[in-house]
Amino acid sequence: MDTNIDQALFQPLETQTHTDDEIVRPSITYWQDAWRRLKTNKPAMISLAVIIIIILSAIFVPLVWPYDYSTQIRGHENQGPSWEHPFGTDSLGRDLFIRVIYGARISLSIGLVASIINLTIGVLYGGISGYIGGRVDDIMMRIVDVLYGVPLLLYVILLQVVLEKPIEQAFETTFLRVFKGVGSDLILIYIVLGLVYWVSMARIVRGQVLSLKNQEFVLAAKAQGASGWRIILKHLIPNAIGPIIVTVTLAIPSAIFTEAFLSFIGIGVSAPMASWGTLASDAYRGLRSYPYLLFFPAACICITMVAFNLLGDGLRDALDPHMRK
Amino acid sequence: MDKLLEIKDLHTSFFTHVGEVKAVRGINIDVHQGEAVGIVGESGCGKSVTSLSVMRLVPSPGKIIKGQIYFKGEDLLQKSEKEMQKIRGNKIAMIFQDPMTSLNPVYTIGDQLIEPLRLHKNLDKKAARREAVELLREVRIPDPEKRLNQYPHEFSGGMRQRVMIAMALSCQPELIIADEPTTALDVTIQAQILELMKELREKFNSSIMLITHDLGIVADLCSRIVVMYAGIIVEEGSVRDIFYNPKHPYTWGLLKSIPKVNMTSRQRLIPIDGQPPDLLKPPAGCPFVPRCRYAMRICQEQCPGLYSVSDDHNAACWLLDSRAPSVTWDREGVSLK
Amino acid sequence: MGRYIIHRVVSMVLTIFFIVTITFFLMHAIPGGPFTREKPLPEAIIKALNEKYKLDDPVWKQYLDYWKDLFRGDLGPSFQLKHRSVNELISLGFPVTAKLGIVAIIFTLLLGIPMGIISALRQGKWEDYTTMFIATMGVTIPSFVLATILIYLFGVVWKIFPVMSSKLTRPIEYVMPVVALSGYSLSFIARLVRSSMLDVIQQDYIRTARAKGLSELKVIYKHALKNAVIPAVTYLGPLTAGLLTGSFVIEKLFSIPGMGGYFVNSVSNRDYTMIMGSTIFYSVLLVIMNFIVDIVYVLVDPRIKLVTVKEG
User: Fold this and answer.
1) Which strands sit side by side in the sheet containing B19-32, from one edge to the other?
2) Cβ A287–C156 below 8 Å, yes or no?
3) Interface pTM (ipTM) of the complex?
4) With contacts defined as CB-CB under 8 Å, which chain C residues touch B88?
5) Residue A157 touches partner C, C-beta closer than 8 Å
6) What is the pTM of this model?
7) Can you name the residues that pair with B229 across neighbouring β-strands?
């Protein structure tokens, strides 16, 4: 017992400061919060920067570069990397650097367009299935399960073969002539990739629609009116869009990969246009002597895929309120 | 009576990336042979961490940083991991809170029951199985031979907890630590499990350390109660002492917030306002100050030691100091003189 | 359990039916028929060929005929290689692909699962970082890129392994193709097992096992392992599918005369019966594989047993 304590200390405490849990942080919107989280993810931010650089290069470099992707410069065949040709030249004397940049255009556009087509079909299919529910939903999801069990890549290949001629013809004869510059084979790839890989998107969309539906009913029961709607929409839509954005971001490298894969087998875009896949495939034959012809396009494929994958993972962590360790 | 377990000045902290969370800040608990001690407190007060410290199963990033834990005279904190393994499940057994997740879903009940038997008592498979069947019978699980070959998901919550109890008892431990054994169960099942535990304690004469936040259970099963708050012990005594002559304002709060059978609809449950303190930066004084109506200035500056109220009854409160105003407690209200 | 099997069999049959039908009609949707690709043949010959292969019959009849042939196991003649039937080609190529595939599966499981486990047990330490770095690379680098890197480094520059693995007779020929083929699935399984194991270690039943006095070794290898590996079983289906499609490219790059090579050639050459036959063969193979995996999964995880819970 400490007898040195002053008797005065045994007086009651005057101020009972009840510091209840104060909400210390200012409230921020869902998107700001997600962006803040994403910013802390270094790999994801680096990936985002890389992707932006690639996209900007794809758009602007051809405007300033002296060479075109099909220009053949006699006398400059098979040169290694140099100041004039940073990536070297191929067997026909074409500058590899600009071909890789054009390849970026093609590969990125394939990734983007195919993913958007996936998204559209997936949203429609999953949306309808989830919204109608019941037996229709059951059947539609059964079909999805069956499709999961099928090796889709085989069908990509098949469809390529099947639709080749019809698309060519469509391009000759109908209004789509305008797009001829793009190349019917490219459109073919857009369509084929988009048609086949919508399955996982459909599943996700359906899941989101189902959870949205439940909340809608609660809302109807409360019958709050306009203000209720606005609040719910402000929360529900972001929630639903989140997984969709992630899936699209992760679908892009998948599409790029598939296209490269197809090129390697020989069913890709045709000359003289070249995607990274065709560049790599063509270069394979000369691997022994001119490895750089393969190295640069392959590196681009890898870097782009890694970047989109890391970004997609980062987005998933940022947009999902239940973060895993 | 021999002292089976002596916890002396135990300090256990969790070293997280935000800092050191001091979960247990210097406690002393004794458990005698054949005794049942209840450790009571709200979530986060450190009672579970204490029990895990005895078993030396504190999960990372937790560490026991100070103190001794004497079991039958030997300091458990000095033992090697191998020596501890010989003690766990054998001399000291533990029953956990959530029976739904405490059993491995991919092995049969029999498989899991037999493990400690074969390990600690060196039985062969057949003998172990026979023991296991007997154990299941002991905890009142019907049709034990059949049940032995079933998987956990084929059992209800109450039955799984019985299996856990059977597993704990299998090697006749001298000390059973039960961490909130009935919290996750329905009220009716709770009563059954408690009855079972009482019977078995008498039969096997084991000591029990019961961890709970429910004072009702403690009164039923235990002879002594230890009240913990924010990592320290605020009061300890016999069940009678605590229920009829509590001395710490926190204990008063706990008792007032228990619904009583003969309460009229006019009487309300009185919860304790406020939150327990952040153990990342524990206060220098008594941790209960922000929620205590009788707090004095000394309370904020220094943490009180344990004042003796009577034999075996102690409370850590400055109100018990001779210089403090006297406060008496009666069930209906508290009067300050 | 019986009901479950029947359910799955029905599903399998439906899927196969679906596949055959779609493939058939896709093939017949190609305008111009199978003989218009080559240099233009005289009318009379085209007519004779069409008759021979019954291409003049109405489509539904051809469809039914195809099913009839299928039941006899006959996938038809190759349109490209005039003297070989599709069956022959498949029987020539498939064993080679199968050899490669089986070695790849074994390699994937034998290396991938331990990688995942070690990573999880040594979370945050160098073993974890190294294995996860390798795994992330494996998942993001496409197999054909990996293959070309391997060929360049180990085949051309350092000359350790043969660049062409024609007959897969010597073990050394297996190394590069197997590594290139398994890269992705190996990494995927490692990551899967790692995250599964990390999850399992946190579970209450692991704490119970420790509280019973079991040695740490026993806790990990008996109690944790089984739970952690079960999710990997579900991946076996997509794994096989991935190896299969991967074989197309790998066989081409390493000049392996497997079925993948035949398939790719048949696509380039528009050999319709071969394309159809191969597609159906592959699809059926995968469907059966998925079926086996589903059954194995039910056997391995007792929670999936379709038994009612007894109350009390």
Assistant:
1) B19-32, B3-16, B62-71, B74-75
2) yes
3) 0.84
4) 210-213
5) yes
6) 0.80
7) B232
